[in-house]
Design a protein that fits this description.
This protein has 424 residues and is an alpha/beta fold. The chain has three domains: 156 residues, 3-Layer(aba) Sandwich (Rossmann fold), CATH 3.40.50; 86 residues, Ubiquitin-like (UB roll); 89 residues, Up-down Bundle (de novo design (two linked rop proteins)), CATH 1.20.1440. The protein has a seven-stranded mixed β-sheet with strand order 1-2-8-7-13-10-11. Helix 14 runs antiparallel to helix 15. It starts with a strand and ends in a 23-residue tail after the last helix. The relative contact order is 0.13. The chain binds flavin mononucleotide (FMN) and iron/sulfur cluster (SF4). Its EC number is 1.6.5.11.
Length: 424
């Protein structure tokens, strides 16, 4: 299945039936969604919770946390729960959440309704920053009589940290869309101090399939630890971005073939958006699932993969570190000082004016800054720094010596490397 209803193509893996993408150029309205069997009455919320648990569905927002565990924790934390469908998608190299919200808003709202029923919520939010997503959700809500609870659309200014779960809660509570210290986590005390489920919109979009078909058919695709299909935004290699729906566990080499990029050209990839750092050509031996990516010291995260072909990995890493320096929320000393220091060394290395001592400091920061700060932005920055040093020692040495061939005519520079333009 292939569609070009947006500026980028969407392609579903032909080996399995598409669950999330839709083979149409039009935004799916209520009649079309109902025609596909959407908004089925829910007879037994406990039974659906058990199906979610046995499905092994893990979150698609980046951390791959089991949805069933989160649902049960929020449900058990008492009455008056709140659900947030997180569609902020601060990751510049990802388009999947905006695609879902713009094209299949009812699929997301149906998932939100089912999650709310499981945790007993009477209040829900769709949290976005993209204007077209907001319009699409508004239109979808106006088509519906009721979802059995109050649903509000909550819009914020876009930002890398705005989609972090405590930032979403803080914004809805009337504060800035910036992370706050944990504990408490949202499932303990979130919106108005109530137990709050924050789930990525793609995660929620899997619930109608589970309601309709159950956990066994869900597990028919994917691996034991990463069941189901997932949305993958593939950028880089000087090609237009494509949004794929793929079964977890697909060999990376097969994705490359589908994308039409020769493995010979691939030097590596920036994984999980900007979060999981760089992988060298070892990426060619991976399969696209959370457990394999972890084994390779990387991560699938939100499913965004940027292929590095002609660009120099040192220059790519320098751009991403500079991005974190600009986009961190400026709240935690370790983070705004740490990202600034790592970005400075990254830039100096790209420009071949860094010293061995600078690299020693970058290495040390990539270890000691891990886990610091209110959110995981520093982890993302340390992932990029450490993976550059570990995965691309020859390129780092070339830059130290000023002999990088790729950068001799001007190094790769981008404010937001591999950003997917928000065109609809
Ligand atoms: C810096 C940072 C930014 C994040 N941005 C997003 C985002 O834009 N969208 C999202 O769904 N999750 C984002 N997350 C993850 C959320 O905190 C949270 O784990 C997620 O929304 C939970 O949904 P899931 O369990 O369905 O993945 C971010 C996390 C961090 C640390
Ligand atoms: S760790 Fe960084 S990005 Fe996260 S809240 Fe603190 S300053 Fe902001």
């Amino acid at each position: 299945m292939e569609a070009t209803d947006t500026a980028f193509r969407t392609v579903a893996w032909s080996g399995c039936q598409s669950r999330l993408l839709r083979d149409s150029r039009d935004r799916e309205d209520l009649a079309a969604y109902r025609g596909q069997g959407g908004y089925r009455p829910l007879a037994d919320a406990d039974e659906l919770l058990r199906e979610v648990e046995s499905s092994g569905l893990v979150g698609r927002g980046g951390a791959a946390f089991p949805l069933g565990v989160k649902l049960r924790a929020v449900r058990d934390n008492g009455r008056g729960a709140v659900v947030i469908a997180n569609g902020e998608e601060g990751e510049p190299a990802s388009i999947k959440d905006r695609w879902l919200l713009r094209n299949r808003p009812h699929l997301v709202l149906d998932g939100l309704r089912l999650a709310a029923a499981i945790v007993g919520a009477e209040r829900a939010y769709v949290y976005v920053s993209d204007v077209d997503s907001a319009r699409s959700v508004e239109a979808a809500l106006s088509e519906l009589d009721s979802l059995g609870m109050r649903v509000d659309l909550w819009t914020v200014e876009p930002g890398y940290v705005a989609g972090e779960e405590t930032a979403a809660v803080r914004a809805i509570n009337g504060g800035p869309a910036k992370p706050s210290d944990k504990p408490p986590r949202p499932f303990e005390a979130g919106v108005s101090e109530r137990p709050t489920l924050v789930s990525n919109v793609e995660t929620l979009a899997n619930l109608p399939f589970l309601q309709r078909h159950g956990s066994a058919p869900f597990r028919a695709e994917g691996t034991a630890l990463s069941p189901g299909t997932f949305l993958a935004t593939i950028t880089g290699a000087n090609r237009p971005p494509v949004l794929y729906e793929l079964p977890h566990g697909l060999p990376f080499a097969e994705l490359l073939a589908l994308h039409g990029v020769s493995s010979e050209r691939v030097r590596g990839a920036l994984m999980g958006g900007y979060f999981a750092g760089l992988l060298n050509r070892a990426v060619l031996d991976t399969t696209l699932d959370h457990e394999t990516m972890r084994r390779f010291g990387s991560g699938l995260g939100c499913g965004a993969v940027s292929l590095i072909t002609d660009d120099c990995p040192v220059a790519v890493a320098a751009s991403v570190l500079a991005y974190f320096d600009r986009e961190n929320a400026g709240q935690c000393g370790s983070c705004f000082n740490g990202t600034a220091a790592m970005a400075a060394v990254g830039g100096a290395l790209r420009d071949s004016v860094a010293t061995k001592e600078d690299l020693g400091r970058l290495r040390r920061w990539s270890v000691v800054l891990r886990g610091r700060g209110a959110c995981a932005t520093l982890d993302a920055a340390t992932n990029v720094a450490a993976s550059l040093l570990d995965q691309f020692p020859d390129e780092v040495a070339d830059h130290l010596a000023g002999t990088c061939h790729d950068c001799s005519h001007g190094a790769f520079r981008a404010d937001r490397p591999y950003q997917v333009e928000a065109v609809s």
